[in-house]
Write a structure and sequence with these properties.
79% helix, transmembrane helix, kinase, HisK_dim/P_sf, 2C_system_His_kinase, transmembrane
Length: 132
Amino acid sequence: MFQKYVLAVTQNGGPGSIGLNDFKKRGLALLIAMMVTTFIAMFSFLYLNITATRRETQLCASLIKQIEATKQAERKNMNKSLAFASASHDVRTSLSGLTGLIEMSYELVTPHSELEANLKQMNNCIRDLLGN
């Protein structure tokens, strides 16, 4: 029922057979090849891992520089906007003061005079500038 198989290896080998010394030599060569392959794989993994880490560090540094540049640009833009808003406020205030002076001058001029026409023209121009 059960079959048994036996592997017989001779000490010195004979014609057409593989001897024990040949198995030892082949086994040692295979062990050395596997160890060399393992070391190559390990050093390749370490090299690739170190290279990837360096690349990631460079990318992080570049990203930090870009973020800082973006923040600086945003601050400059905000400062510029505030300067324009302040200048616009100053101009509008001055124009409003001129409007008040023109309206006060209407009472002092004679009707249908050239001065009244000039005051009306100035008032219209100021209203256009103020957007009223």
